[in-house]
Description:
There is one protein chain. The protein is about 50% helix and about 20% strand. With about 425 residues, the protein is of the alpha+beta class. The chain has three domains: about 70-130, no CATH class; about 135-150 and about 160-340, Band 7 domain (Tetrahydropterin Synthase, Chain A, 2-Layer Sandwich), CATH 3.30.479; about 370-435. Strands 2-1-3-6 form a four-stranded mixed sheet, covered by helices on one side. Strands 8, 9, 10 and 15 form a four-stranded antiparallel sheet that branches. α12 packs antiparallel against α13 (about 395-410). It is elongated.
Amino acid sequence: MIVFYIILLLANGGFRTNGTRLVIDLMICGGGFLFWTFFFAQFILPLRSANDRLSAFERLFSYIFGFHGPAVHIKNGEIIKRKQEMQRWGPGVILLDAASGAVLRSPTKPTRAVGPGVIFTGLQETIAGSVDLRTQKKSLGPRTDENPFAVQGKKESDAEYQARQNRRFETRAFTRDGIEVVPTIIVKFSLQSDMGSGFSPWGFTPSSVRAAVLGQKVNLNASVDSPERVQPWNMLPVYMAADLWKEYVQKFTLEELFQLTPKLTPKLTPETKNGLSRIKENINQRMTEPPPEGLIQGRVIEHREFQILNEHGIHVKTVMITNLKLPQAIENKFNERWQSTWLTRARQERDLVNQARLTESETSRKQALLDLANGISAQLTSDQINASSPIKDNTALRSFLSAHIQLYTRNPHLQVQSPDAVKQLEQIMEWLEGYSS
């Protein structure tokens, strides 16, 4: 278009003849360029204020001439960018979806945490790290369909075999009697936030996002460009659960790990637990509940795991330990022993059920006696029985018998113990009425 305009200009007398027209045309083109740039800048991004509209125009104008800062999109915590976009310095823009948060930094320090929406960065601001605001699941350990103890297969490459062994070493632990056990550990967690805050259905809290990003572990032995240089923030919970698993397993023998221990719950229902169940409960307690406070030999009891996660802005919902793997020889021997002792375990559970039934029966009997006493006491008031004056009629006795009859009528379980009680009480009441008359 510019070349065509110059040809027309030269054909009609050149620049000297059309100097004024050239200046006017340039002003019209320049004004039109600025107007349409400002116009389209209003529709590129979801803007909410007049300052945002002006900032969008400035970024688009600088983008056209190539001196803009980073222009990126963060979706589900992942940074979507062009090659070398993060190395640019200058006023930039970041678009975060409803499931994303990020921390910005200057060349010397972190500046601010930002959440869903359009964020305009300063002259030297860039992204220090991003997070996914949604509830997440991370796992360590072997896959469901693989045997971590198997030797390298004929069709298995060296890289595949090494990867399988690495998954084995992530969660391997040894019992007190030296048996290796390898589970799959799954942790469900999210960042600490209030649901629906910060234009996100999952909630956005700047302090949690900042703590998660700035608390990431840096591996100084890895190169600066290596993906292993920084450990992602969302791997901390599952690594912590794996450490706790290894700590607890060494306190049990293999037999204790799976041996069921029958007991009664506070609700008087039979329940059986083994060492593995107790390990799961303890790990969940230490990662999801505040540490208990107390003194034992002058030392404060505390579970540091919950505090560390809290400092990193992470809230763990649950920890699951599944897919437990044992060496094949140990597993076969253990299964044989399990089959040979099933009758003993069944008898233990039967005795536990009988104990619960007897306990419940005794509790019901005591409650029935308490109901009887309360019902009678409610009818015999101080107006009816006065120790300071003699009883001139049988009003108190009739109230006493009436209370008995009402109590048996309202409580069928009392009639089971004494089915003729109501009839006998009514006969006594009739006798009293006849005596009074």
